[in-house]
Predict the structure.
Amino acid sequence: MKGTERKNIRPGLRVLVVLKKDQRTGKTTEGVVRDILTKAPVHTRGIKVRLEGGEVGRVCEILGGQG
C-alpha cells in the first residue's frame, strides 16, 4: 500500500521510508512509525514520519501489522 494518505498511517505500523539523505538514490529504510509529522491528509511524495529509531523520512510503502 502506498504511503501518500495520512489516514492509512498510524504509530506502530511497519513501513518503508525514503530518508532525506537517500532522496537522490531512492534507497528505502524499513522501520516502525513513532510519530506522524505531515499534517496534510494527502502528500504526493509520501507522508513524513519519524521512526522508532529516530530517523525521519517519507513513507513510500506500508508493510502492515503492528511492529
